[in-house]
Description:
The chain folds into two domains: 2-80 and 275-343, no CATH class; 124-256, Rossmann fold. The chain has twelve helices and 15 strands. The longest helix is centred in the N-terminal third of the chain and has 19 residues, at 2-20. With 351 residues, it is an alpha/beta fold. The strands form three sheets. Strands 5-4-6-7-8-9-10 form a seven-stranded mixed beta sheet, sandwiched between helices. Strands 1, 11, 12, 13, 14 and 15 form a six-stranded mixed beta sheet that branches.
Amino acid sequence: MQEDLDAWVLRGKELKNRVKALIPQDFEALALDVFRYQAAFNPLYQTYIRMRGVSVEAVKSVDEIPFLPIELFKNYRVQTGFAPILFDFESSGTTGQIPSKHPVCDPEFYQVHALKSFESQYGPVGNFHIFALLPSYIERGNSSLVFMMDHFIRASGSEFSGFYLNQYETLVEQIKAALKSDRKIWVMGVTFGLLDWVDSGQDFSFWKEAVNEGRLMVMETGGMKGRREEWIRDRIHAFLMEGMGLPYIASEYGMTELFSQAYADQGGIFNPAVSMRVHLREVSDPFAEVRIPGKVGGINVIDLANIDSCAFIETRDLGSLESDGIRFKVLGRFDNAEMRGCSLMVSQDFS
């Protein structure tokens, strides 16, 4: 047992250091090493691999790695290794649903990684005043998005950066004051919060000059959280662009079960963090891969920052890949029918 513990500690530290230093050319080699590590030290994933009839030793490419159905984060502890769990990130869900829980053993690693991922696309957060309009998330105390944005807000060092519920007048006054500085403005909003802000009758002409100068970014996180009718992303963006006087709306793709994020500017095309790759599966067969650019499939995510949980997640989102095989679009979600990958585990007891 002590040998296992020593091997786990050393291997986990080594893998996290490799994630921190990761470049795209090393992604596949690291993914295979993370797979072998998690197959050895994650009991739930180990069981799933066995039930799939997959031989760990036979897996020679990332295309052969099994993806764990995301629903299992609702009913089981998805943890690799033996580190103390300091807290859980927990999903919001809707009334009557069981929330997903993602154990957090190393919050500093998450913060450093999330900040690096954002800054690789948008530059230092110190260049921004950050306004987080995240009412449904703030009302909970265990949101990964709030945890991330709190770190960004503190790192920005801005007197104006902060969280907002639905204090639209205060939010506008703070943005107006922040616009007098040389920094850019970043409004990060849950989708229904941004829609409600437009519906409040706000006149957004106050930031027209900043928009024309390219100094203002509004980013939505996706989802209505049961607060409003679900809209497709194109309709949401068209409504917000018209109501706010913006040429585009940016988007963030992240979730409770992931430590990495992807960001999209115009066109809803997401650029994943260097630690993140999207693979697509056939809608009617979770074990068959979609390889044709533009074809719709179920989104599987490799998130190499998930060292302490599981890096290979079968989500319930639908999407398509761009021709480069890296960038992707999110086009919707599966319905509520249970997916076959998850049904393999329903009757299992992992206690």
